[in-house]
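Review session, final week

We close the course with one last complete record, chosen because it touches almost every idea we covered. It is MAIP1 protein, a protein from Centropus unirufus with 142 residues. Go through it on your own first, then we will talk.
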Amino acid sequence: AFSVVSKLLSQRKLDLLDELVSPEVLQVLKEKISLLPDSYRDALAADIDAIMYTTEGDVRIYYDDDGIKFVSILMRFWYLNGADLPDEVPGETKVFQIMFGDESTKEKRHLLTANYEFQREFTEGAKPDWTITRIEHPRLLE
């Protein structure tokens, strides 16, 4: 889900996120993405093969005012991206240089992080659909 959503964000195909992302988060994303430079927008995309590490940040079970049970999982992702970002992106992890082919061909990659929170209703009989209720790409979507 992270890879698919991050690519759709990068491509500005926000209308395809209606069923995956909460309306509140989607509205904020529409505003932020319209202001991003192309290089930052390109850096949002995380190819599934470029995801280096994932970990859960927080797992919660809670009830709303009507007694409906929810589960929320915050996931953190580290991924490599070849977007043409300025070297002075604050807070970014070191830039890696990866060589493909001969000595003269170098491709610069950035190790970036993203936090996505997934939520689903967990009461008996509820659909098993997850919704993304938070999307953070530090230093890119601020």
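Two points worth writing down before the exam:
Residues 69 and 124 are 9 Å apart (CA to CA).
The helical segments are 2-10, 23-34, 38-43.
Good luck, everyone.
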